[in-house]
């Protein structure tokens, strides 16, 4: 095999191209690694937010159930209205409600 200057120059150019490609690929890999790291951090942030939202929702449901037990039933409201009407009626209609003065 004969090593001519042309072959050596071509080999040198190929090695330079390969080295440049390697540098470019390493830079691309580092950039992808940085992006992956940022995405993982964003996913962690989103997950933390989701957990906090779920905890707030659970607390709100507990509070809602506690408040629901305080809401009077329709029967209670109707009985209150009937009692209010009875007590506010004129004494002539219900003489037993007269208050001694």
Give an overview of the whole structure:
The protein is 78% helix and 0% strand. The chain is mostly helical. It has one domain (5-91). The longest helix is centred in the middle third of the chain and has 64 residues, at 5-68. The radius of gyration is 42 Å and the shape is rod-shaped. The mean pLDDT is 89.
Shape: rod-shaped
Share of β-strand residues: under 5%
Sheet with the most strands, sense and barrel status: none
Radius of gyration: 42 Å
Structural class: mainly alpha
Question: End-to-end distance, in Å?
Answer: 135 Å
Overall tally of structural domains: 1
Task: Give the H and E element order.
Answer: HH
Stretches where pLDDT is under 50 for at least 5 consecutive residues are none
Secondary structure tally, helices: 2
Mind sketching the topology for me?
Blueprint: H1 5-68, H2 74-88
Sum this structure up briefly.
The protein is an all-alpha fold and 101 residues long. The chain contains 2 helices and no strands.
Name a few traits of the molecule.
101 residues; 0% strand; 78% helix; mainly alpha
């Amino acid at each position: 095999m004969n090593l001519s200057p042309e072959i050596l120059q071509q080999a040198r150019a190929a090695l330079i191209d390969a080295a440049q490609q390697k540098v470019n690929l390493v830079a691309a890999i580092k950039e992808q690694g940085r992006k992956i790291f940022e995405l993982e951090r964003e996913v962690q942030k989103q997950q933390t937010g989701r957990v906090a939202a779920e905890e707030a929702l659970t607390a709100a449901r507990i509070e809602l159930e506690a408040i629901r037990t305080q809401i009077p039933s329709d029967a209670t409201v109707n009985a209150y209205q009937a009692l209010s009407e009875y007590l506010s009626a004129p004494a002539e209609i219900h003489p037993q409600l007269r208050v001694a003065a």
